[in-house]
Amino acid sequence: MLPTVLPGWSSLQTLRSRLSGRLARFSRSDDSASESSSQTLQNKRAFFETDLRYLFITVSMVATIPNYDVHRFERCAQDLLSALNDIVNVDLVEALTALKTAARSTDGFAEEGANLHDLVPLAERYPDLSRLLSLLEASPAHFSLATDQGSSLFILPAGQAGDAVMTSLAEIKDLVSRVLYDANKQPTSLTPPLPTDDDSCTMLGQAAGHQLTAPHRYASSIVNSLFKDIRQRNCGKPHEIKLKVSDEWQTSAREVPLDMFFSCCLDPMAWHEAKCGPIQAAIDEARVDGICAAIQRARDQRRSIHLFVYKDGLFDISDTMPTTPLSAAHYTIETLQQLLDQKALTRITPGDYRSGLVEEKLSSREKAVLALGLARCFLEFFDADVDLASHSWKPEYVFFLRPIQGCGRDRILYISLKPIGTDSAGTKPTQSVGAIGPGHPALLSFAKLLLEIENGEKIPMEIYPQSRANLPTWGEMCDIVERVERDGGGNYLRAVEGCLYLHRALRELQKKAADLPLSECLRKTIYDQIVCNLEVHVNPQNVKRKRQDSVSDLPILKKLSFSPPTPNSNVRLVKTPTARQHHPTNRDDFEIAIVCALPLEFDAVSALIDEIWDEDYGRTWGDPNIYTNGRIGKFNVVLLLLSSVGKVSAATASTNLRSSYPRLSLVLVTGICGGVPFPGAGEEILLGDVIISRHIVQYDLGRQYPEGFETKDTVEDRFGRAPPNIRRLLTMLQTIHARERAEELTANYLLDIQQIVGRKPRGIRYEYPGASQDVVFDSRYQHKRRHSHSVSLKSPKKKMCGDTDSDSLPCEEAGCDFKNVKPRERIKQKQVLEMQGHTKEAQAPSIFVGTIGSADTVIKSAKERDRIASLHNLIAFEMEGAGLWDETPCIIVKSVCDYADCHKNKRWQNFAAATAASATKALLDFYPQRDASR
């Protein structure tokens, strides 16, 4: 007979529950200064921590163990618990004991054993582990598992003892992974198979005689069952649910319990934690007296609630589950309304990094993920549950739990759900989902909420329960969206439009699919018009890279994921509709060209190519260019390295490029350039920043008079107007949202190229030189030169900026006086970030869109740079764009490697080339793909 009680496995679940909400964010500590900690041991501890987190956080609790594995599960659980008991951090235990003693003497600490009954079985066999868990309540701090010497719960020993612990952990991790993998291969349903005499699985606590039905929508079915129980028992008090917005129930293939808070009957302002759903436990020991009674019992015992939800009712199984201590005391609650008032959703500025406010603000990606999570909730709860969620799309009903000692980025999202009529207003809408039209209150509220999240400000618009009363507001919001779209929209704005014009898309779908039920039509329309656009916005790379990285090249979490994949990982796999990538058959299949003038520029772009096409696609007769074909993201691209720098080489190559690839829609000139450090309007351009051309000026085309040079400026001499596709792309990049998003993507791609090239044993390195290496001198101060005696005799009239090898020497070696360096605010901010260890943020470039000067002249004079820039309103200088434009309108995407003065050197060239390549790839994420049928 199989055992019905598994003490080891149960104790392991108690350990997991006790650690819930108490672990700090994982980061590897640098113990290089410690003589007692070798690099090998540091790596082992990092792997050990990651495996433990996999077991305690990443995967859901295994509730169904195959019969043939029960004894092995129990043995492995006991082995791991015994190993952990032996490596408990004694120093931490002593510190927590002292803290608890001090708290008891000063504040009257809670009586011993008040909430420790679940630790009694654990204490009998694993006393040190039990004592550690009992002491965690003495401190609100968060702890690491093994990688922080001071606050680690466990100290992994060196040598064979540590290897034995790692082996115990690896064995149970493999078991859990395999069971979850096997479970994921089965059809997902809330209906468990009826038990038979020879059933091959032991359902821990399965209720005999009960059978669940698979709901149309999982989360909304659970919530409806909860409110149905509350209505039937009629406690006389209004109830509200705060539901945790989680990827586990939004995107997972398996049905997992929902985390939530219930409002309490006796105190509507108090909230109690609960986990509700298809939790498998001993139903015969459960209670069936309703939610209100379950809340009261859980409050008395200071523990969370576990509710097993069936189609015909629910069971309180809290007494049969491992005790989960209340974690709410370790969190504070915020509303989205409060964050809007605190300007936490406004654009992050360099000043925010310097002042530390960046920790409180949401980045562009975090705002996008927030919008996507809410949109999936909208899809889940709109339809038949419109009465539950009609109030949920207001900032005051979107909540965040935040660890007391955590930063803003640790916030956990919750939404409010309650039946209409339970609030003070008591207004219940008379509309059904079939009456969807312009001004629908839920759709209009959600559109308004998306705009508020994106802009970071509350929109003062009143929305009424009836659509007809909202028509003026609906029209005003449509006008706002239309005006913003003129400057460039994107998928986020399309999602807002999807809310405003959902009625149109719904009608179109109903015409095409007349047999489809209204609810199905509505859900499909909401997904296509709103959710899908936000998924693409969050994950713009809808075609993933096909690089075959080795195990040693992968981040630590990926190294540990080669066991069968688990369905409940915290890593979201969002499936976005993508155009199928066909292998190009001929040159007509190529839409994008990228042109580089220097080999180092070409190398940087090549490192970011997702796939190389090895076929020889040929070229037209007489074309001397050598092309490289490949794919970047969703585009087939052709790369061209010019034979030399300058306009002539670029013009010749451009003519042949257009001849061989006649269907190109966009040409990008990518590489390095000289920047204007102070372009005006208080702006500062730094080395590594990206310059994108709005216009190109050929400033060396003109007439030389005795009194000076005059640039030609007639209509015939100007470059023609850019094609509509280029104008639209550049207009969009001038919006705050698009530029911020492009900067974020560029920073991410820059990390990619640094990691890709960093893994190679030889070749170019793209490390960030550092803000201290970015100096700009007063334009009147000339670069010092090391004079040899022979040079001085031969060139007595030569000034400090002559054409000698010493001109390329760094200013430190040449002896330049750094008292003449111009102070800049952005440099100070980057230096602060570097001192804080935020290298990624420090090296992240800003993007500027403006006029670029193009000529065959290399500018090495600050005075000449400032004169030309002031005359033509330039922000950068380069040498190829003017040559390409006549034959092929293009966009210049270059990164600043020097300031076009006599102090210029090559220190920043490689990094700038990598930054320009990263910005080029980011730009392609914004560019719409050509219809393959055209």
TrEMBL record:
Pfam families: DUF7580, PNP_UDP_1. GO terms for biological process: nucleoside metabolic process. Coiled coil: none annotated. It comes from the Eukaryota. InterPro entries: DUF7580 (IPR056002), NLR-like (IPR053137), Nucleoside_phosphorylase_d (IPR000845), Nucleoside_phosphorylase_sf (IPR035994). Gene3D superfamilies: Nucleoside phosphorylase domain. One of its GO terms (molecular function) is catalytic activity. Residues 591-709 form the Nucleoside phosphorylase domain. Residues 212-540 form the DUF7580 domain. This is Uncharacterized protein.
